[in-house]
Structure formats: C-alpha cells, structure tokens
Write a structure and sequence with these properties.
467 residues; alpha/beta; Hexokinase, domain 1; Nucleotidyltransferase, domain 5; 2 domains; six-stranded mixed sheet; five-stranded mixed sheet; 15 helices; globular
Length: 467
Amino acid sequence: PLCLYAKYLQPFQLSPETLQEVSARLRKDLLRGLGKHSHHKAPVKMLPTFVRATPDGTEKGDFLALDLGGTNFRVLHVRVEEEAQKVLKMDSQICAIPQEMMLGTGEQLFDHIATCLGDFLESHNLKCQTLPLGFTFSFPCEQLEIDKSILIRWTKGFNCSGVEGKDVVQLLKEAIQRTGDYHIGSVAMVNDTVGTMMSCGYKDQSCEIGMIIGTGTNACYMEEIKNVKRIEGEDGRMCINTEWGGFGDDGSLDDILTEFDVEVDKTSINPGVHIFEKMISGMYLGEIVRLVLVKMTKDKLLFKGQISEALGTSGRFETKFISEIEDGLENAKKILTELGLDWGLVDASVVCLVCDTISSRSAYLCAAALATLVNRIRNNRKLDHLKTTVGVDGTVYRKHPTFSSKLQKAVRLLAPQCDITFLVSEDGSGKGAAMVTAVAQRLAHQSRLLEESDGEDDDDEEEEEGQ
C-alpha cells in the first residue's frame, strides 16, 4: 500500500519543468546580484573574489596556506611543481582554537594564529624564507581586493571583538609583525568554493566552476568582468562567489517549499535566511527526513504509531544516516534499532524511500542551479556548445551513494548544450588556497613585465623626439 505514503512524498518530487523554472529564476537572481544598483538587495550576493584567472600550468614555487573555518585551523606548506604539473602538500599542522578564544578579542585570536604559523615555520625550517600565503577564511566577508577582505559578521560560534568591519589580512599581518620573528610574502584571501575550483584547475585547466555540497552549499564560476557592474573599466574575467545558498530568501521558491521545509526553517538559528541551502545541504537533510517520519508515525503509518524519544528529538536523525540507509536495507534496520524504533520490513522500506526522495530532491535542485551557471558561461561566450569542468567538494557529494550520479544526469537534461566533467576537489582550502596565491603571483609578474616593456617603448619615443 505504498500509495498511502505517496501523498507525503509527492511535494518533494519536482518535475523537469519545475527544475527548468527553478533554473530560470536563479538566472534572474544572478543578474540582480551582478547589477550595480540591485546587488545590495539581491538574495544571491554574487560577490567579486578578485581572482582574475584560473591556472595555466606555468605556476610554480613554495607557498603557505592558512585555513580558518571552524574550531580548528590548519597551516600548510604547499609546493607547486611545473614539470610534474602537481600541487603537493609538503607538511601541515592542525592547531586548536580554545572556546574562550573564539569569544575573546580579535587581537588574541590573530596573535594565536601568528604564533602557530611561526611554530610551524620553525619546525619545518622555513623561517628564513619569505613565502606567499593563501588565507581561506570561511566567514561572510566583503572582498575589496585579492588581499583586502572585510569581515561582515562572525558565524559558527565565533564572536571575537574588534574584527567585524575590519580587514582580516591587515589583522593577520599586524599580528605577524608583533611576533617580530618572521615575514610572509603577498597574501591572497580565498573563499572555500574558489579554493575548490582552483585545486582542480591545475590538473584540468578547463575547470571554471567550484561547487560545495556539504554542511552548506555554494558555488563560484568565472564571469566576464564587463558583466560585474560594481567593478569599473576592466576587461577579462573574474571568479564570482555566488553565495547561492541565499536563493529563495526573497520568497522566490515559496511555491516549491513543503510544510517540512517551512518547519526546518522556522526552528533553525537563522529563520528566513538561506532557504535554498536548507533544502539541499547536509546540515538540514536529516532533519527533513525526521520530520516526514514523525508525521507518518503520528498518522499511524509507521512504527505502530509509536514515536521513540530519539525520533521525537530535533537533530537526532543525522544526515549521514541517509547515506547509510540508502546503501542497504541492513544499515536501515540497524539505524532504526539504534533510534529505539519498533520496526517491521515495511517500515524499513518506507524509511529507505523517504531518504531517497529527499536526497534526490537535493541533487536535482543542485543540478538546476549548476545548469544556470554552465548555461550562463556558454551564453557569455556565445558558444553553441560548452565543454567545461566543475570542481566539487563536500560530504553530501562525496559520501552519498547515488547523489553525484543523480546530479550529473539531471544537469545533462537541463543543460544539453554543455559537456561537463566533474572532478572531486583535493583539499580546496589548503592546496586550492596556495593555487589562488600562485596564480595571483603569476598575474602580478606578467603585468610588471608588461609595464616594463611599455616603459621601454616610452624611452624610445623620447629619444626619437630628441633627435
């Protein structure tokens, strides 16, 4: 009697036409985010990253990377080898950030980071070198240049005083100066999606999109600078951090939200914000499944109408359970037992079906959003056919048994004129950050050479005038 369960799941089943419509709505939102006067009100922020190129394979040298996005931060030494076309992690170290430091002063936090970086350089005999540094700082920032980034607000349990509204590169440099012990070269600020794209871009130079589907979801892509209306008078391309998790924050997705999505949003720490992300990412998928199972149980269709304490508790049905349950019925039985439920075979099968329905919707919504990006790149370049690569990261994409194949199949349907290769990123926030720095150095070097050769031409002209 599966038809009894179908009415609960039907609202999660999105037709190809609906997905086309979602993709078209996001297309409009990208334009609003890129507009000079519309961007500050746009739900999809479309932030310029000041990363102006992807790797061309000539990058080389030694780099440092700092990765701060949670309760730990990492320090890495990365070597880019041109001959072998490889990005190698030479050494890395993880440093803890104590709870009280997450709530202390900004100066304390950055002194701690500078000290840990110094210890790392000391123990790997790198103190005598002045190495360029890529800084992945996974908090909402407004980037003003590749090496200038203003923290908008702390998230994820951090609340250090004196940092919001300030340039985090400056704060880092000042803390390193206070140690008086070592120097670093140029700094590049890196958003984690950009790092994801760049870490794949060395081995595949057609990688022009980065996408993360993990605890949260986001994507970046290479846009024509002439379309980025906030940046005047430049040509070429720039990587745009879409912040697509905010899609729907203006109500544009209300018609496809289910009662369960509305409930997840209402009980979250940020109601009304990141509506698209809440339908897709690992932080919320388990909770959506839990709410559906609770409703079916209340209606006496599951578990003999008995809700166990665990099933009745918010957050207790973890997103990783979805991956495990869809990997096999035996896993499902084990997890249901652990959740204190009195289950039969029908119950276990229905739970599998609920998990499949909700993870599939997530994959299809991601596909619709990705289709918007690849179609935009294709139209920007006036191509009949685009061949491109997407660098992907995140636990949902990596760990779920069928997510990546469903996403890929759906994108082919929604963007038929695009041929897309998917690469799983290798350490975007570490190696990717080093790669962003390496490309920024290459571009700076190239523009210096151009200026020098222009300078020589000027001299020639002056000499001729003198004759």
